[in-house]
Write a structure and sequence with these properties.
The complex is a heterodimer.
Chain A lengths: L2 E6 L4 H12 L6 E7 L3 E6 L3 H7 L7 E7 L14 E2 L5 E6 L5 H10 L12 H9 L4 H10 L5 E7 L5 E6 L4 E4 L4 E4 L11 E4 L4 E6 L2 E6 L2 E3 L3 E3 L15 H7 L1 H17 L15 E5 L1 H18 L3 E5 H4 L10 E6 L5 H12 L3 E6 L5 H5 L2 E4 L12 H14 L7 H23 L1 H12 L3 E6 L4 H15 L2 E6 L17 E5 L5 H13 L4 E6 L5 H4 L2 E5 L7 H19 L18
Parallel strand pairs in A: 16-17, 16-18, 18-19, 19-20, 21-22, 21-23, 23-24, 24-25
Antiparallel strand pairs in A: 1-4, 1-10, 2-3, 2-4, 5-6, 6-7, 7-8, 8-12, 9-10, 9-11, 11-15, 12-13, 13-14
Helix pairs in contact in A: 4-5, 7-12, 7-13, 8-12, 8-15, 13-18, 14-18, 15-18
Chain B lengths: L2 E6 L19 E2 L2 E2 H11 L4 E6 L3 H8 L8 E6 L6 H6 L8 E6 L2 E3 L1 H4 L9 E6 L7 E6 L2 E7 L8 E10 L12 H10 L5 E4 L4 E3 L5 H10 L5 E2 L2 E2 L4 E3 L2 E3 L4 E2 L4 E3 L2 E3 L4 E2 L4 E3 L2 E3 L4 E2 L4 E3 L2 E2 L4 E2 L4 E3 L2 E2 L4 E2 L4 E2 L2 E7 L2 E7 L1 E3 L4 E2 L4 E2 L3 E3 L4 E2 L4 E2 L2 E2 L4 E2 L1
Parallel strand pairs in B: 1-4, 1-6, 4-5, 8-12, 14-17, 15-18, 16-19, 17-20, 18-21, 19-22, 20-23, 21-24, 22-25, 23-26, 24-27, 25-28, 26-29, 27-30, 28-31, 29-34, 30-35, 31-36, 34-37, 35-38, 36-39, 37-40, 38-41
Antiparallel strand pairs in B: 2-3, 6-11, 7-13, 8-11, 9-10, 32-33
Classes of the chains: A alpha/beta, B mainly beta.
């Protein structure tokens, strides 16, 4: 899963391609490359970061070009495996994001027809297929080649002799940026925002022919009309603005994200918009499906909906759910995906809809695949999240879940009023956690020298423990595991010792007493304990080694402040360890493979 | 002149509780931080290359100003590790400046016309202004348009012309900066070494805020210039008089009366039957319940004010939750800050995150620290430290 870019216009392509690729690096960054069409096709690529490539690249002359930044799926990161890939003549160059499932068969077939392969990638079959069908018209050749492919792709192709780019997508994101006598192509919008804020989203099975002043889109042989959108994000949204890392900037954006989200939902309710998307759920209950951090939001969503709406809710991992022999039938399902492109979740949406289920998608990206194939969409509007580790998108997902639940609450109206007031207080409460940042940074020093850390929580904060562990794992490479506090003694205790700190999330709800007991059990095994506690808690300080204090909120909102504290803990631990916080090894932002 | 260095690292200790969680430059006047007025004034005069020297609570500056694109400028951030003085702050910008640049304090509120003439001058120069109370500033003595000396906070001011803290310099100044000194001392040093420093006077806006109650004066001055606008929902029966600005997604409910100049932020829920009188600024995500009367006050983000409250000449910082019948009526009081006494006319000053029960009465002049909790039926007065509990 990778990032691809293309440029065709009047300016030199190389600097533009490299700049766009740099912005796409959060999609993958183990290798990269560009192809520029001047007289001939010239390619420069290597298993390095984009900045390194830009420093060593010779000046390639041309006003048409394509580029790629890679997250390896087939073939290790290497110069030979990096894109762009060409055909035997070196006249056709292709960049590809996705996975070609039948590439082995195609490769054998093409090799037997005389084609020469130089890499281990699945992508390489594509330029050779185009070569096979090329007869002076690139678009026709690409169309014929695509017929033979099984799998997912977003590709951009060019050929020496034709002054245009042919692009196509199927299960992989691709956006065209519209300029003035020049056009841009990229895997997503932030890549192009330096140059234009007018974009056209391509649909699956679209093939587009892009020249400097014309964009023609065809689907199944017929010309189609794709609307132009104007993007209101600015390049600034995608820049660090004083912060050392995107992750820290995005953590600090959370009070504003919460405030903006509340304003949007309140306004929508005022205007009579139907936020009540749950329909008539009843006792059969509903499903929430997601992956990764969004799955943790799904688990918290389960608690929120069960508590407020009093219906049974099951949270499922999309990657597992897709392989159940039998699709559980429900009338309603919610899927959560920040990027809107997560392959496992897209598959889930299709599967559920086929089974007659009404699917609501919670996503952060307007125009993403999930938003176009679900029955209803809730946009989290957190702005682009550049850091690979999800922070503000997770908090925004929680806000969406609170707002989904509120119109359906079966709780007492007095409690409901208090909840809504409490919701409006959240921006300030989160800011208070951020104001306490330096204390958390100090504590992070302790964790920085550990190799194993446990996170424990109960009830609505059990998923917070899972998320805290995931964040620490992702950015600081420490082996961290989240556990339901009651489960630790059923095995993991064997791993505890003075070198395995335990982070305990202690909420002021009916799980408070059992958590105290669990903490005592952990202390008996001599593990250092860091407790995340509500301010004013006098008891905990005596039992544990260190304390992170968070402001007082209603128990149902405690995941919000607790998670922000753990985000900061993960960030500063990674910083103390000197890890590349925004671009962790082996990870990419949007997982578009299964 | 294409570039400006803005000094935005200072704490503003005398403005507590409002500067515990934000630097002085981020104090909000008519729903905009002071720093934004400075940046916008520069942009309107064609200066779009900004170096921002930050320090105390710089995250608050990053969060709001970002890369500056939103304000039409390009910001480079430079950090002053310890706040040792204005010259030390300026020294942090060495190596990042062009040959000529303006230097401005980020915590004095100016407008475009304040510096319109000044930006056309050749360095080195200082912008001066006549004020009524020169004793608190750097008094400038001049000879034929050139500065002879700047004397900070003199016992006996020789004139009422003071430095606004706005200068135009060349990179020469970095040769005269020593870590402990403030810029006026550096300027005096330069004059001794034969430099000619022009003095130009401005008639434009130049406002400083030193004590919490000064916020009300600046708020009033700036609100006189706002234009009416509405991005929200105004229900039937609401009266908006004069210049009232309503943010997006805000609802003003029936029978409320808002007399401008008033500015209201985004996502607020006001009314029904709420009365807001000039000159009041209300932030974002604020809820105000029926029969509450607010006059000449500044209300921060996320505040929740219940029914039947009277709030006059007051500043309420973000996140406060105030239950019914809160009385903060205006009156005169003598307030002590550090070791000085001031006679002030005002209501109450509440820090952020305070929680007040029902029927709390605030004596005029009370200054309440951040995160204070006050039980119902209490009378609060004097100065309460952060995290006080009044039971």
């Amino acid at each position: 899963m990778c990032g691809i870019v293309g440029y065709i216009g009047e300016r030199q392509a190389q600097p533009i391609l490299l700049n766009c690729l740099h912005r796409l690096e959060y999609r993958g960054y183990d290798s990269c490359g560009i192809a520029v069409l001047g007289g001939a096709v010239e390619i420069y690529k290597d298993a390095v970061r984009v900045k390194a490539l830009a420093n060593t690249a010779p000046s390639l002359n041309g006003i048409v070009g394509i580029g790629h930044t890679r997250w390896a799926t087939h073939g290790e990161p290497s110069k030979a495996n990096a894109h762009p890939h060409c055909d035997c003549t070196g006249k056709i160059a292709v960049v590809h994001n996705g996975v070609i499932n039948n590439f082995q068969k195609l490769r054998q077939q093409l090799a037997s027809e005389g084609h020469n392969f130089v890499s281990e990638t699945d992508t390489e079959v594509i330029p050779h297929l185009i070569e096979k069908y090329y007869d002076g018209d690139l678009a026709k050749a690409v169309e014929a080649a695509l017929h033979e492919l099984e799998g997912s792709y977003a590709i951009i192709a060019l050929v020496s002799g034709e002054s245009r780019l042919v692009v196509a997508r199927k299960d992989g994101p691709l956006v065209i940026g519209v300029g003035d006598r020049e056009n841009f192509i990229a895997s997503d919008v932030p890549a192009m925002l330096d140059y234009t804020n007018r974009v056209i989203y391509l649909e699956d099975d679209d093939i587009a022919i892009v020249s400097p002043d014309n964009i023609e889109v065809r689907r199944h042989g017929v010309e189609v009309d794709r609307k132009e959108h104007k993007i209101s994000w600015s390049v600034e949204d995608a820049q660090k603005a004083g912060y050392e890392h995107f992750m820290l900037k995005e953590i600090h954006e959370q009070p504003k994200v919460i405030r903006d989200t509340i304003a949007g939902y309140v306004s929508a309710t005022e205007k009579g918009a139907d936020l009540a998307l749950l329909g008539d759920v009843g006792l059969e209950g509903m499903l929430i499906l997601a992956c990764g951090t969004s799955y943790h939001a799904a688990l918290i969503g389960k608690y929120i909906l069960e508590e407020l709406v009093r219906v049974p809710v099951k949270a499922e991992l999309a990657s597992e759910f897709n392989y159940y022999g039998h699709t559980p039938v429900r009338s309603r399902a919610i899927v959560i995906t920040q990027s809107g492109e997560t392959a496992d979740v897209i598959k889930t949406i299709r599967r559920m809809r086929e089974a007659g289920c009404w699917v609501v998608a919670v996503t952060n990206v307007v125009g993403s695949t999930a938003s176009r194939i679900a029955d209803q969409i809730i946009y989290t509007r957190a702005g682009p999240e550049i850091s690979v580790a999800a922070t503000k998108s997770f908090i925004a997902q929680l806000m969406a879940l609170y707002w989904l639940a509120l119109p359906y609450s079966k709780i007492d109206i007095r409690k409901l009023d208090n909840l809504i007031t409490g919701l409006r207080q959240l921006p300030g409460k989160v800011q208070q956690v951020l104001d306490n940042e330096s204390a958390i940074a100090e504590l992070a020093r302790q964790l920085a020298s550990c190799e194993n850390v446990f996170f424990i929580g109960r009830g609505i904060n059990f998923p917070v423990a899972l998320e805290g562990a995931l964040k620490l794992k992702e950015v600081s490479y420490i082996h961290a595991e989240g556990y339901a506090a009651g489960e630790l003694k059923h095995g993991p205790f064997a791993l505890l010792g003075s070198n395995t700190p335990v982070v305990a999330i202690v909420a002021q709800d009916n799980t408070y007493e059992p958590m105290l007991t669990n903490i005592k059990e952990v202390k008996a095994r001599r593990s250092p304990v860091i407790a995340v506690v509500e301010e004013g808690d006098e008891v905990i300080g005596e039992l544990v080694d260190s304390v992170i204090t968070v402001p007082k909120v209603d128990a149902i909102f405690s995941p919000v402040v607790n998670t922000v504290a753990l985000q900061l803990l993960a960030y500063y631990t990674a910083k103390h360890r000197g890890c590349p916080v925004d671009f962790p090894r082996n990870l990419a932002k949007s997982v578009t493979v299964e | 002149m294409k570039q400006a260095v803005i000094l935005a690292a200072g704490e503003g200790q005398r403005l507590r509780p409002f500067t515990v969680n934000r630097p002085k430059v981020m104090l909000s006047i008519a729903d905009k931080p002071i720093l934004q007025y400075v940046v916008e004034s520069l942009a309107q005069n064609g200066i779009r290359n900004i170096v921002l020297v930050v320090g105390y609570r710089k995250d608050q500056v990053f969060d709001y100003m970002g890369s500056g694109n939103q304000f039409g400028v390009n910001i480079t951030y430079v950090t002053q590790g310890k706040q040792l003085g204005t010259a030390h702050a300026l020294a942090q910008a060495k190596g990042v400046t062009e040959n000529e640049f303006l230097v401005l304090p980020g915590d004095n509120l100016i407008q475009a016309d304040t510096i319109a003439q000044f930006v056309t001058l050749e360095p080195e120069a200082v912008l001066v202004k006549r004020v009524d109370n020169p004793g608190g500033y750097g008094v400038v003595t001049m000879d034929g348009g050139m500065v002879t000396e700047i004397v900070e906070k003199p016992e006996e001011a020789r004139s009422n012309i003071v430095s606004t803290g706005i200068y135009s310099f060349t990179t020469e100044i970095f040769n005269f900066i020593e870590p402990e000194l403030n810029i006026p001392d550096v300027v005096n040093n330069m004059i001794t070494h034969g430099h000619h420093i022009d003095a130009r006077e401005t008639e434009g806006t130049w406002l400083d805020v030193i004590y919490p109650w000064d916020i009300l004066d600046l708020n009033d001055a700036i609100l006189r210039q706002i234009q009416a606008s509405s991005g929200g929902t105004i229900e039937a029966g609401v009266s908006l008089k004069d210049q009232v600005s309503v943010g997006k997604n805000t609802v003003i409910r029936s029978n409320s009366y808002v007399a401008g100049p008033v500015v209201i932020g985004d996502g607020c829920d006001i009314g029904p039957n709420v009365c807001i009188l000039p000159a009041t600024s209300i932030g974002n995500n604020v809820v105000i319940s029926p029969f509450t009367h607010i006059k000449n006050s500044v209300i921060g983000d996320d505040v929740n004010i219940s029914a039947g409250c009277i709030i006059q000449d007051s500043v309420i910082d973000k996140g406060c939750i105030i239950k019914g019948h809160f009385m903060a009526c205006s009156g005169q009081d003598e307030i002590k800050v550090n070791h000085e006494h001031y006679l002030v006319s005002m209501g109450a000053m509440l820090g952020e995150g305070c929680s007040l029960g029902n029927n709390v009465v605030a004596q005029p002049g009370v200054i309440v620290g951040n995160y204070t909790q006050v039980q119902s039926l209490k009378l609060i007065s004097g100065r309460l430290p952060d995290r006080s509990m009044v039971f």
